[in-house]
Amino acid sequence: MTTMGCALFATRWLQAPLYFGLVAAQGVYVYKFFNELWHLIHHVISGHADETHVMLAVLKLVDVVMIANLLIMVIVGGYETFVSRIGLQGHRDQPEWLSHVNSNVLKVKLATAIVGISSVHLLQMFVDVHHTPRHDLLWGTVIHMAFIASAAILAYMSGPMAAHESRSRTAKEGVPTAVIPAQRDGDAADRGPETAESAGDGAEERIEAAGFPARKVLEMFDEGHLRAPEPQVITRLGKVDFVTRKANVVLLGGPGTGKTHLAVALGVRACQAGHQVLFATAAEWGARLADAKAAGRLREELARLDAYPVLVVDEVGYVPFDSEVAHLLFQLVSHRYERASLIVTGNRPLSRWDEVFGDSAMASATVDRLAHHAEIITLDADSYRTRRLERSVPAF
Predict the structure, then answer these.
(1) Most buried one in 40, 191, 312, 360, CB count within 10 A?
(2) The pTM of the whole model exceeds 0.70
(3) Does residue 95 carry a pLDDT above 90?
(4) Which DSSP helix (H) or strand (E) runs through 311?
């Protein structure tokens, strides 16, 4: 950028005080809300409030809350769009609309909020219709319909505009180059951590390079067949905040309960949040580390894997490890302890991992490090393969 361009671009920070001014306005509405609430409680206790009075007071409270919601959308969304990135990717409380916010989406959200506020105002008029002039009712209805029409027009226009932006972005990025499976992680260590600005860009390349056996997403996961855990546990994991905490996820359960599906889906979410991910089965990880050890570069290989905030280790427990592989997997878990995340799937409870490692001391040390900062989820369900087979067998 030229000096003039940099100077002009820096003027965006002049808007920052405006958003902090809106934060002060948010505080005024908080005061107004509790002031109205206090008056409502006082009138109810003193017996001076009838049903209509209570309903009108509650509608005023709702009105204040909706205006405050509108303010927070303008403050957070506007600052993120026009001033600077806030960097909430992976945060467990990131608003749903902020992950794809832009000026176009923000306008539609604001228009929808204004229609909601107008609806509350109109409802207040109709609730207190005996004390509202017909002139006010008429113009209140007309203004409300105008808000609805403008919001509908904005929503209609946002479709072609979003499509145009998507086509422009695709044309700018070009066609991604193919990734050779044997070299899919060849340059991850050189790329370094990604910024929040680039987290959304290159997500497909990260997903392709991760080596997932198939693309799975959380929306495709059938939570209805689970007896445990509760669906909200899966939803919470889907926020992938465990990556920023450098914590692990351990998915346990019998065959066909969806462990690999969830592991891949969480890996895909992590890729979409801007993180590098690498997937392999436990046997494949053992073979990879054994090759590195044989070449005298095990320490370098473990350090190289630090470039990946998330490693997925699938199918622990299906095949017992020999002593060398067990020791190598222990080193992998130990090296990443409190340094980066692992997503591990297994068909046996952690208390029985000595059967897999063939050494109770090695298994205990591995489980101790793996489970210390971990979400341990046991999937209790019938195998989806068995259920599909039962549905396909005709009844006689």
Answers:
(1) 312
(2) no
(3) no
(4) strand 310-316
